[in-house]
Amino acid sequence: MGTQDSQYFVVIGRAIDEVRLAEGLAVAGNIILSPNAWELCDRANIAFDPFENERCLRKASTLMPNEERERFLQKYIMKTVLQKIDADQPLEYLSEMRPATIVFVNLQFKGIEANLEQCLAIHVAAIGITKQMVRHHGRINKVFMFDKGCTFLCLFGLPGDKREDESAHALQAAYGAHEFCQREIKSLRIVSVGVTSGPVFCGVVGHALRHEYTVIGTKVNLAARLMMYYPGVVACDTETHNYSRLPAAYFSELPKKTLKGVKDPGPIYQFTARKVRITVGQSPMSSERDKESPLLGREKEMEVFSSAVSHFLEGRSSDTGTYSNVVIYGGGSGYGKSRLLAEVVHRASQRLFRVIPCELAKTDTHQQSYTLQTLLALLLSVETCKSRAEREKAILSRIPDPEMKDNLCLLNEILLVKIPVSNRVSLMDSETREKETKEFIMQLFCHIAEKEPCIYVIDQAQFVDRSSWHFLTELAERAHVLLVLSVLPYACQSERMPELLNLLKAPRTTFLKLPGLEPSVIAQLACQILCVIRIPTELELFLVERSHGVPYYCEELLKSLYLSDMIYISEVEEEEDCKDLDLLFPGRNVLVPTSSKANVEEEIKKKSLGLDILTQENTTTLKCRKITAMDESSIERQKFVCLTSEGAKFHDIPIPLTLKGMALAHLDRLAPDEQMVVKCAAIIGHTFTTQMLTNILPELTEDHLCYMLVSLFKAGTFLCGSRQEHTADLSLVTEKYGVLSCYCKKEDRDKEEENEGEEDVCVEDGDGDLASEGGVWHCEVMRFRTALVRETAYDLWLQEQRRDIHNKCAAYLLKRAHRCMHCSSDEFIFGHKAVLGRDIVESHRVLNAQESCEKAMFEYQDIPTDLGRRRGTIQEHTVKPLLETEDLVDTLAQLDAIIQNHQEGAKQSKKCCCAQVVDVVLTPMARHWIGVGDVAKALYYLLEISAATMYLSKNFRAQAYLNEIQAILDNVKAGRPAFETAEKGKVKICKFEKACVCRLKGEVLFNTGQIEEAEVMFAKALKLLRRRLPMTPVTAAIKFVYERMKMLHLQRQELEIPEEKRLAFLHEQIYCLSYMWKISSIKRLPNIKRALVAITMEDNSAMLTAQQEKSMFSMIDMFQFSQISGQEEDYSKYERQLFEQCARLPDTSDSYTLIAHFTRNLCITRLCEGHLEEAIQYGFRTRKVIKGLNQAGVDLWLMAILNPPMLFTKRYSTFVQTTLRLEYLSTTTGVSTGRGWFYTSCFNCMLYAGFLVRRLDECLMFVQDAQSDPCLLADKGLMFTLYAALALCKASHLYREAPSSLMAVGGNLMFLEASVLLFRKALLENNEHFQDIYAKTLKRFTEFKQHFSTNQIYQPRVLHLRAYLHQLARHQTKAQELLQKALLLCDAQGNDLERTCIQQSQAAWQTLDLDQQKRSIATWFIATVTMPVWEKDCPPETEGLQAHRYVFTVPIPHVSAKVSAVLLKTDEEQQGDVRVTETQRIF
Questions:
Q1: How many other CB atoms are there within 10 angstroms of residue 413's CB atom?
Q2: What is the pTM of this model?
Q3: pLDDT at 589 over 80
């Protein structure tokens, strides 16, 4: 029975009735036969033939091939299954786990009809239900008769049928089938339908000779139970109700019942498919703007809307129709279109526009003129009317024009009113009346648009019906209105919506495709969703990796983690307010100006009238965001933080079903062969090569594969993997899926080009080549456009299927190169294989028949037998020695000569493909071995990836891999499987790998400013490497003597390179000790003696390697240490030796890396000495060298280092260029700490130079948002600097935690300045604690000197501040002495900025006019909003910037002589305590 296309085999009759009775008598272990069956059986065989644990199966019929018979039998198989069988896919590949929607339709007859009549009724039902299923993209899987009547099992979301709105389709199909059966089949007693949504097994089950395609799962059982326990209705579960996103009026909750075999099914709903009452215009937007949850990451989109509004107003006032009056936002589900439109509605309402917003649903598409009806009702304000009479009254009040009132009766049908029909209308025929109605409605819209500016906002505009599309298109052409729409991407490419396509192509339409949010915004978004002020770093990394910048994905992932108890919300204990903060800002919030450029003049006017500029109207209180929590019952309006539960493993969380459904909808729009290619590529990894894909799909011909790849590129599934994948894509243009852009060759060409100067601040990618030409595929490396599609396709495989393909991929990759051809090492952890044993990775030569992109990208070479040629060794060349000179010009010339002589090494470094090695080889290898279950190999490759990402300056990506490794180590230690697919058996992990994990963790922590945590990690690593660092002063002294004697002994020895295993341990020791001496030097209380022990141990380990590279690396560290410890002779000696050795280095990429390391340290040491000009010159050369290394992280750090000396030397133009470069690098790399240093530079130029790079309100907003950024909060030095710039708002909480590093010295200086200003405030207010504040300020000056004794760059400012402190205390003699010292130091350093500041202070201290001092203070307050912004084309005049600086003024009247004497005594006592402390330190 069924239609001509789809038929179903149904058995009914006496035998079925007997089986029903037999089933009721059956118990476990028994077989019940009906009487007829017993008579027909050979009883002797049944009695004696044992069939234990087996089934006796009837043999399947064997038929000869016959096309006609095959076509006949194909009608009984679902078309989606047939497509895969016709594509010759193995039957086992048809089985997969996927979310689907299950529909059970049960027909119960009255029981009085004959078998033939029942057959005919079932046949009619099958035809009607089939039509409903086909219409809504569903399938009937089977029809069966049993004791419950006739049941149809229908499926939605099978492979090839997946839709994002499949739940809505299923409900509509279920309701249609229910209505059809009740209406058309008279012999039915009742029709019941059960609908559920969730994960199920879809695939082939049964014996190899007799099998079928079906679904199995708890959701299938639940749907059957709903069908039987809720008779006569269409019942659905909570998931179906939620996923359908249909209006709530379409559902009513059913009473709870106990369902057999189902535990807690949740609320059950009845789907009615129509609204409970008739309404007009009630389609409100589901997303409303929350003033406490601002829109994040959509500034560019809102700028486009603001621009459209401006053009709209100009065109409306001038009555021109050339402006753009249609703005369409396109984006996938969950990209935040609704929140964006809510912000549009809010901003438009604030500007007093008439805003008509509505949101459509899928069911609205089939209602003719529904969108028009809704907009008209909203325009006439009748949407809230409860009755017809109210609507009529509202309409008449809105249309006072007598001529138009005669035609109001034309609105009766569309607005459901009964306005009396006029004589003119009564004489019209139906066709004329329809035309007049459309024209009258258009006149209404135009008439109201003339009176007031109207903006129509339509969310989910892809559900606009066709007749309404015609009207909207005409409205945009005829009336001065602004249309703002949001649509899904498929609607923009669907030929079924020609009206939308025409509107998109219209010249007055602006279309924007929403990109994913930047990684830096994800943490703030998560804080909004969870209503917290902070989230853990590992959670942010997980969300960035898995959400792909999509807000809805982020929300669903957080929901899954929250409900799985992997994260929890904890209340923040109120921090004790700093006493300094209370003294400075007693009893009130800190208010900061947030004025924009537009109202600057108004604020100046207020000031001139004597009004305080810091009023509540134009200020914002610095506070944490208050957001509606996900679980409002457990979170009140207080400060909360999100914490990670103990043992939580984020990566074990499966993809939420809502997200998986979206990805499956994309996959199922592909052909079966294309789906198979995507599924196999998903096993390979996010990035994969064409050659490897061909290798695991050998059955495909080259032409066929090319055809499918072209289709997948056009569908937006794949794209070229050679193009740089920026973490932040700010492009607002439409993605051209139809263009086969390939950048494999272009990347090679780009690496040959050199960009000089700073012109690369904003680099745009040009068009690439074509991926396919003439049927030949050229793209060598591809990747998934979205990782969600890859993860979903991966989860479709069964576990055994995954293991087999993973093994195949790993075997293939083992034959490929694991190294970059331009680098001299085959491992990122030196000697890794040698320590573990070379059996861990079996390397083979590249097969001749497998030449592909790997040959162009990588070059396999045998591991060199000469260990001196590996990464870590340099061969000496004889070159002309350098002249020994102290002249800066000669020294720079020598350095330039060294760099120039290593151009070949620079070219090789630029061609470095280590990033591609990580993406194409190492990362897939780790995933494949995890899929196979090999713990040792998986751990090996995970460690290699971690080391590689650290080498590429990707700290937080490395942290994610290290967290995964740590989870493996914890599981092994606890006796659990290392990971889900791990092979059974005991696993032993060597100490070397554990030490590498600790060392890499320490590097990440050190690079992110977590100094104390890093020290712990390095100490653990050294312990595992048997090179422990002493902890007590006594053991440190003994160890130092021993290491010195060892050094003298080694210097007299002829050392040979040790075996590779020993060499690997020495390399790790050198890395750890190098960081340990730095940590000891920059801790809050530096321990130079411990640092000396560590660097001596490092030098000895370097000598034991007998490798020149390690010796130079150690010498560079000794060079930097001698500067920090004040050993000038050693410092000069090491500098000369390093210049000589750099000149003798061979022209290789490793030598070039060493030169970059040396020049960077030259820049640092000169900066610490206060030689600003030299630091700048070395910095520029370091920048030139670093550009060839392709390490954006190092470049970003250098930009932050170079900013202060350029500011002090008044090189404002170059300062702004490097600052903008810093912003560009931090944006493109997604490093939030880089943005922190960028805004630190903005604060510096604002406070000291007198001009703006970014406005004050933007800087303050960044600092406020930084409180929810775990990456920024982890860097205590950076956060201390930012908080100190806000004049003690938060600095006191981090003062004791901030390190004494070069990057933190600026923040310490700002904190020192705030302390002096606090003392000034205490004097002005006659604070009784002024003596304590003075003593504390003196103590901070002493601490600053102790911590930064060798860092001279800020010494003039320190002397200036100390002079100001003494001037406030009436110690004028001391103040003048200190100012003279500061001026001399400024002249020596070339610090022009501080010199002018000191001169301003001298002039102000000689001023006795109180009014003049007040005016200077008030001027600076105004300057914060009037300060000139640096424009590249028109920079401000340097001479006029002094007027915008803050001047240190002395309060009038001065302090009394008695108070001055008390303060002088306090100063003397403080100096005495310092001398005692220094004497104790000496002994």
A1: 13
A2: 0.61
A3: no
